[in-house]
Automatic annotation (TrEMBL):
<dbReference type="InterPro" id="IPR035965">
    <property type="entry name" value="PAS-like_dom_sf"/>
</dbReference>
<protein>
    <submittedName>
        <fullName>Protein containing PAS domain</fullName>
    </submittedName>
</protein>
<dbReference type="InterPro" id="IPR013655">
    <property type="entry name" value="PAS_fold_3"/>
</dbReference>
<dbReference type="InterPro" id="IPR000014">
    <property type="entry name" value="PAS"/>
</dbReference>
<dbReference type="Pfam" id="PF08447">
    <property type="entry name" value="PAS_3"/>
</dbReference>
<feature type="domain" description="PAS fold-3">
    <location>
        <begin position="39"/>
        <end position="123"/>
    </location>
</feature>
Amino acid sequence: MSEISRKPKLPSPTPVDREVKLHEDTILISITDKKGVIEYCNEDFVTSSGYEEFELVGAGHNIIRHPDMPRIIFKMMWERLQEGKNMIAVVKNMAKSGKYYWVVTDFTVKKDAKDEVLSYKGIRRLAPKKAIEEVIPLYKKLKDIEDVKGMEASLKFLNGFLDTKELDYDHYIESLVSGSMDLSKEKNGKPLEKKVGAFFNWFFFAEKRPF
């Protein structure tokens, strides 16, 4: 399959401090090629973004990136995906109107028979309010550090922040989304990495969630 050529970047909207209201059952799905160019997006993704489908297909996925987001989060995400690994994150997106919406995003990587990356599939659901409230001050600090000292300094601060909580990034995000901060040790003899996978399978694919 030939790759979709990237469209010229559309003018970035001016951020507006108003939220795009997402229903808790809304599932936003997009598929990009290995360069991050959008090949497919479902109706919920199109509606929440405020763009027309034809504007999204062929555009870079950063078309919905909000300027409040620290770049280090996307750098970490992109590096993981290129290694064929997943990274779940709480992300603030920006619609065409300039309004914002917070989501928890999950990825799967599609590979060919030679283990080469073909595409990335992103699934997003509404982020819990408590998780948003927790990451806003952290993301602001990371963004402020990046603006003055660059992404390397931002990453060092993030690693120090996680060290104080005795969590890695994945378990920190799970602790925010699940509402529990007691994830620094094994529970019931199950390794943490298994707990993370089980929890997010429920978060993204269960019909009902308790928030």
